[in-house]
C-alpha cells in the first residue's frame, strides 16, 4: 500500500467512526426529546384537570354565597381562558402559573370561610386536587430528569453542530 492509500483508509475509518458516534448521539437526542414531549402532554392534561376542579370549587363557593374579591374573580375567570391544545414548554409554564394563582385564591377563600369547606363538592374536589398535584410533581421530576439527559446529549463535542442544525436546543426545567 502506498502512503496516500493508508491516509485515505485512516480518514475513511475515522469518518465512519464519526458517523457512528453522530448516529448514536442523534438517536439519544431524539429519544429524550420524545420522552420530554410525552411528559409535557401529561403535565398539560393534569393542568387541565386541575383547572376544571378549581373552577368547580369556585362555582361551589359562589353557590354558597362566599364573598369573592375582584382579584379572586379575576383569578378564577383566567381559568376559562386557558388553552391546552399544544403541549409546549412555554404553554405548560404559563398555564401552571395561572392555575397556581387561582389555587392560592381558592385556598385563601377556603381558609377564611371554613363553613364553605364542609360541602361534599369541596371535599371530593380537594382530594382529587391533591392527587393531581402529586402526579404533576412526579411528572415534572421525570421531565426534569429527561431534560438533564437531553441537555447532556445535545452538548456532546463534535456533534453539536449537527444536532443544532436539526433544531434541537437546550431546554429549561419545569418548576
Strands, total number: 0
Give a short account of the largest sheet: none
Helix content: over 70%
For the termini, the CA-CA separation is: 61 Å
Strand-residue proportion:
under 5%
Topology at a glance:
Elements: H1 3-63, H2 70-80, H3 89-112, H4 120-154, H5 160-165
Structure report:
With about 180 residues, the protein is mostly helical. The chain has helices at about 5-65, 70-80, 90-110, 120-155, 160-165.
Give keywords:
mainly alpha, rod-shaped, 175 residues, 0% strand
Briefly, what is this?
It contains 5 helices and no strands. It has 175 residues and is mainly α.
